[in-house]
Design goal:
The chain has about 150 residues and is an alpha+beta fold. The chain folds into two domains: about 90 residues, Winged helix-like DNA-binding domain superfamily/Winged helix DNA-binding domain (Arc Repressor Mutant, subunit A, Orthogonal Bundle); about 60 residues, Ferric-uptake regulator, C-terminal dimerisarion domain (Dna Ligase, domain 1, 2-Layer Sandwich). The chain contains six helices and six strands; from the N terminus they run H-H-E-H-H-E-E-E-E-H-E-H. A three-stranded antiparallel sheet has the order 1-3-2. A three-stranded mixed sheet has the order 5-4-6, with no helix packed on it. Strand 4 and strand 5 form a beta hairpin. Helix 2 crosses helix 3 and helix 3 packs across helix 4. The radius of gyration is 19 Å and the shape is flat. It starts with 5 loop residues before the first helix and ends in a 9-residue tail after the last helix. The site of one zinc ion has 6 residues, from loops. The site of one zinc ion (ZN) has 8 residues, from helix 6.
Length: about 150
């Protein structure tokens, strides 16, 4: 069962359009992973072949502004989107750029206290664990003879 985003949209004074519902559905189904705008366009076209990339991009922006989506762009390969389901952090694969949400936040009261002792009012923080996912690690093990000797 998909939660209804219609009420959510309406409560933000935003019209419910089939495009917006579709984007939210796509991101809901990939809850543990973030997606790039292009991936979302690809999946959206499977359902609505006439949808233009521009329409998807515009709606992604709107949904981010409303706070229904979170936009992440720290990895340097374009923006990633995910449903804003509350606070969490990510494991980021340096090989395939996959991001997986983890239910852990290092921003505990100790860190907060330290910041506050420096007279610092904390507004936001970032925490990412970077490495290689199982798929990429398996690929790296098999490939020394297929990539021209580069490790
Ligand atoms: Zn990977
Ligand atoms: Zn956190």
């Amino acid at each position: 069962m998909l939660p209804s985003y219609d009420k959510e949209l309406q409560s933000h004074g935003c019209k419910v359009t089939p495009q917006r519902s579709l984007i939210l559905d796509i991101l809901h189904e990939s809850l543990a992973h973030t997606m790039t705008a292009d991936e979302i366009v690809g999946l959206a076209r499977e359902q609505q072949p006439n949808i233009s990339a521009g329409t998807v991009y515009r709606n992604l922006n709107t949904l981010c502004e409303l706070g229904l989506l979170k936009c992440l762009d720290s990895v340097g390969d374009g923006r990633h989107y995910e449903l804003n389901t509350g606070h969490h952090h990510h494991l980021v694969c340096l090989g395939c750029r996959q991001r997986v949400a983890i239910d852990f936040c290092p921003m505990n009261s100790e860190v907060r206290d330290l910041a506050e002792k420096s007279g610092f009012a904390v507004e936001d923080h970032n925490f990412e664990i970077k490495g290689y996912c199982t798929k990429c690690r398996a690929g790296a093990k098999r490939s020394p003879d297929t990539n021209g000797g580069m490790i």
